[in-house]
Amino acid sequence: MAARKRAAEKKERRAGESGDEEAPEELSFRKAKAEAVEKRRLAAESAQREKALLKEKRRRREELFKEQKKRKLLPNTVLEEITSTCRPRADEECTIQEQGDDMENAATSSEDSEAEAVNARLQESYRAVHLKAHDQLSLQEQAAKDFIQSRLYGPGSNRTTVNHLFSLTNKRGLVKKPAMQFVDNTWGTEKKQKAKRFKLHWIHKQRTILKT
């Protein structure tokens, strides 16, 4: 009887120990599941926030684009100057006060009429450009010309310009003549004096070479 009782107590103790061992595993599984659900929820909220931010940025960009587009329209004063230059000069007898009144009246016109006037006037013979872009284009053209000039007539090339060739012919001939570019009387006196000094120096150098 005592042996059976001890065996039953051991069995109950083992069952209690096994239950204690299984409880943490079940608890850890529930905790991991809850954490996974929470992470999924946070990820969904983060995605929604990012989507809302992108939508807001897109809306602000569109508003800024529209505002800049409106600002790029020419002002009424410029339109008045353009229209005055396009018209024939039959209104030269108008006074300065009348011109000021016309500019004030043009300044009070609406944006719609301003845009229509811009399109109507610019389509005739004028084109609006940004000065910065125009300067950049000029610099690019100048850089391209310099590049072509250096490639065609730079050091190491066997080419020369017509003026330079004629100038060399005039200098190396039996009858010495001035350089081709100084034959034109419209050139400045300073350049002519420099050319004259250079010619005298060259003649003196040639004489010293012949004497030696």
From TrEMBL:
Lineage top rank: taxon: Eukaryota
Disordered: region residues: 1-29, 43-70
Annotated U3 small nucleolar RNA-associated protein NOL7 C-terminal domain residues: 126-188
InterPro entries (alphabetical): NOL7_C
One Pfam family here: NUC129
Any one Gene Ontology molecular-function term assigned to this protein's record: RNA binding
Biased composition (Basic and acidic residues): 43-67
GO CC annotation: nucleolus
The name this protein goes by in its record: Nucleolar protein 7
Source organism (scientific name): Geotrypetes seraphini
